[in-house]
Design brief:
single chain; about 80 residues; about 0% strand; 4 helices; Arc Repressor Mutant, subunit A; mainly alpha
Length: about 80
Amino acid sequence: MTSEQQRSIRTLRAAGQTTGQIAAALGLSINSVKSFLRRERQKSGLCKQCGRALTQQAGKKTKLFCCDRCRWAWWNHRRQHTAQH
């Protein structure tokens, strides 16, 4: 994956595009996009849903979402996606 594709993934994700939409727009496999986004989140501490920066507190459980709204949206999307398959 080129650095230009990586920048495009970040831009499209920040604009609210899904991994499938990003993959189709850039001609990449959906798994490549998912893996890149997962590594980015792990590296920089970003929300799994919207990509906002997270503030971690020492001695507390690691935060994955910036707010309840993002957490609910992420779980509901996964539930709908798995119900379709």
